[in-house]
Amino acid sequence: MIGITLVSHWFLPFSRSKSNDAAARRAIDFMFGWFMDPLIRGDYPVRMRTLVGNRLPKFTKEQSKLVKGSLDFIGLNYYTANYAHHLPPSNGLNTSYSTDSQANLTGVRNGVPIGPQAASPWLYIYPQGFRDLLLEGANVKAYLAWSLLDNFEWGNGYTVRFGLNFVDYNNGYKRYPKKSTHWFREFLKN
Q1: Which of 11, 5, 43 is nearest to 28 (CA)?
Q2: 147-174: b or e for each residue (b if 16 or more CB lie within 10 Å)?
Q3: Could you tell me if 66 and 39 lie in one domain?
Q4: What is the per-residue pLDDT for 137?
Q5: pLDDT digits 0-9 by tens, 35-60
Q6: Same domain, 131 and 149
Q7: Buried (b) or exposed (e) across 34-52, using 16+ Cβ within 10 A?
Q8: Is 168 found in the same domain as 109?
Q9: Residues 18/8, Cβ–Cβ less than 8 Å
Q10: Number of domains forming the structure of the chain
Q11: What is the dihedral of CA 29, 30, 31, 36, to 10 degrees?
Q12: What are the residue ranges in the chain where pLDDT is below 70?
């Protein structure tokens, strides 16, 4: 079985407006769709292609055919959600990945965080976003000729500890290898 694990946040409109609704959709396209769409459609999201223009590489017909459907499963790491506020086009000035989506992202609206803040300053606990990404995945299923989503592997990212070692904050920051450390060591040996 060959697959890929994507990382995506969920994005909500900063306020009820067509421009912020569109900004949230663009943010999803630029984080989730950027990688998912080529795997299921053979090309980047239309909104992304429109905004980035000729700076975004084009798939040849052969490349598109090769990448489309080229996996057995998809994993998903979800950690947080953000609000998306419409950002006007940069009109070619300082154009970059960070301005292409024309979305300003934040975890706080009117002084209120989207959810409880975890240990990392960018990480807000917003479990509904995981459900919404699952529904986004269900929408992806409409693109498929077979039931690829039946093989999705969904993972929950609600932890504040990352890495291959557990760090004991109460005992001089002593480190203990996790099971994944041992697995990774064996993988590298082979």
Answers
A1: 11
A2: ebbeebeeeebeeeeeeeeeeeeeeeee
A3: yes
A4: 65
A5: 989 998 899 999 999 999 999 999 99
A6: yes
A7: bebbbbbbbbbbebbeebb
A8: no
A9: no
A10: 2
A11: 50
A12: 92, 137-163
Q: How is residue 10 written in tokens?
A: 């969920």
Both 181 and 100 in one domain: the answer is no
How far is residue 183's CA from residue 186's CA, in Å, rounded to a whole number? 5
How far apart, in whole angstroms, are the C-alpha atoms of residue 174 and residue 19? Answer: 49
Alpha carbon distance 93, 105 (integer Å): 20
Single out the residue of 100, 75, 98, 80 nearest to residue 89, CA to CA: 100
Q: Tell me which residue range forms the domain holding 171.
A: 163-190
30 with 117, same domain?
Answer: yes
| pLDDT at residue 160, as a whole number | 58
| CATH code, domain with 86 | 3.20.20.80
Amino acid at 124: Y
Say how many residues make up the chain. 190
CA gap 29, 100 in Å, rounded: 11
Same domain for 35 and 107, yes or no, is: yes
